[in-house]
UniProtKB/TrEMBL annotation:
Span list, region Disordered: 1-21
UniProt feature, compositional bias: Basic and acidic residues: 1-15
Name of this protein: Helix-turn-helix transcriptional regulator
Organism phylogeny: Bacteria, Bacillati, Actinomycetota, Actinomycetes, Streptosporangiales
Superkingdom of origin organism: Bacteria
Length: 440
């Protein structure tokens, strides 16, 4: 068993809770303090959780990442990591495998297996270095980039973006080296920039989902420049659409609206699916701004464009935008309109969210979770709390399978709405389950 980190636990228990008078700071409260400190210092979103702090206190993790250590030192007003019980991992000495003149097979196997997990980070750091780019770009290289972008995008939709961001970033660094150092035949140039732009867009989407907003903005800007260099209006529309959604999520609905309007310039060059996608983004911005007429007009236009979609004419990065996705996106816009302006839009929002939940298949677990949580929140606010609890529990089964900071925030919103009805057993069970999923 690992040694418990009593220094860290003691420091936390000596720190007064910021919200509960006379109580020590809880792990959840400390996690939020750390995330807030890092955001104030570096303008970067992080997702430290109470569960991870528990691992630190139990000694399962003895050397957290540098920004977490820096924040904890500042919060507890200590000078060194040692004061909080942190120590760098070291290579464990090999145990003797000889027992009574022979080899102890169990000890030998434990030692051999342990060698794989006690290797320090510096020993494998070279694995993250950029692979030397080829001297000349081939069509096969571009095909590989497109395939990787598709795989990463699918993973993001199914599991959330947090788990494989480093893999995407490493591949993106290699792709940048292709643009900088490899010779590309003129007929392949636009295809190369499009493939790299799609990969950058996939990485940016993952960063957005993980609340690494600065990273996402940098990758979005790079993806947009690639799309414009290739004069690919379709990729440009897709990148600007998700840039707008990030801005809206971060509270800048007006900035998101500007990005959507920029994407809709020369909309005649776009496919019906792309126009539908952009008008749903416009609807979401208008709803956040409380502009009812413009929201409803945008939803109507999105519906009209989607009715003319022919999937075979859409780009690979638009394959996700099916009937379920369209219903979910427009349902989210009407959800915001109901909560911000008038509950009479709740019924249309609920119908669209229900359609999205029923239509999203296994590859789109995250989207199904988003719509399910929103429908539960809407029902909790306007309908039967116990029915809402049932919807919420089904949505949490999906949410528990993904790693998504956006889903975590939606769950917290649902928990806040459910708090008023916790006297009902199904609702109390839901809020307990939300705490478990969020902390995990």
């Amino acid at each position: 068993m690992p040694d418990r980190n009593d220094a860290l636990r003691g420091a936390r228990e000596r720190l007064p809770s910021p919200v509960a008078l006379g109580q020590p700071t809880s792990r959840q409260e400390l996690a939020e303090l750390v995330n807030a400190w890092i955001y104030r210092r570096y303008h970067r979103e992080t997702c430290l959780t109470a569960n991870y702090l528990g691992k630190l206190e139990r000694g399962l993790v003895r050397w957290p990442r540098s920004d977490y250590r820096e924040a904890l030192r500042a919060i507890f007003n200590v000078e060194t990591d040692v004061a909080l019980g942190f120590r760098r991992p070291t290579r464990a000495p090999a145990a003797s495998a000889v027992k009574e003149g022979g080899v102890n097979r169990k000890t030998f196997l434990r030692t051999a297996a342990g060698a794989a997990v006690t290797v320090s980070l510096t020993d494998i750091a070279h694995l993250g270095q950029v692979t030397e780019p080829p001297g000349r770009v081939r069509a096969a290289d571009i095909h590989e980039l497109r395939a990787l972008a598709g795989v990463f995008s699918t993973w993001d939709h199914t599991y959330g973006g947090s788990l494989v961001r480093e893999a995407v970033n490493a591949q993106l660094r290699h792709s940048v080296s292709l643009l900088q150092h490899a010779t590309c035949p003129r007929p392949l140039r636009d295809e190369l920039y499009t493939a790299v732009g799609w990969l950058a867009h996939s990485g940016a989407a993952m960063a957005f989902d993980a609340f690494a907003h600065d990273d996402a903005r940098k990758m979005f800007r790079f993806a947009l420049s690639c799309a414009e260099e290739a004069q690919n209006w379709h990729l440009r529309a897709k990148v600007l659409s998700l840039m707008a959604r990030q801005a809206i999520w971060c509270g800048d609905a007006d900035g998101g609206l500007t990005l959507v309007e920029l994407a809709l310039v020369r909309a005649d060059r776009l496919t019906p699916g792309e126009r539908a996608m952009l008008h749903t983004a416009r609807a979401r911005a208008m709803a956040k701004l409380g502009r009812v007429t413009e929201t409803l007009e945008s939803v109507s236009r999105a519906d009209d464009h989607f009715a003319r979609v022919r999937p075979r004419d859409e780009a690979p990065w638009m394959r996700y935008y099916d009937a379920a996705q369209h219903a979910g996106d427009t349902g989210h816009a009407l959800f915001d309109l109901a909560f911000r302006v008038d509950w009479r839009y709740a019924a249309d929002a609920a119908a669209r969210l229900e359609s999205a939940i029923g239509g999203h298949g296994a590859p789109y677990v995250r989207s199904r979770a988003f719509s399910g949580i929103k429908l539960a929140s809407l029902t909790m606010a306007t309908g039967d709390p116990e029915e809402a609890a049932g919807i919420g529990m089904r949505a949490l089964r999906d949410a528990g399978r993904i790693r998504s900071c956006r889903a975590r925030d939606d769950m917290r919103e649902l928990a806040a709405l459910a708090h008023l009805h916790e006297g009902r057993p199904p609702v109390a069970e839901l809020t307990g389950r939300i705490r478990t999923v969020v902390q995990a």
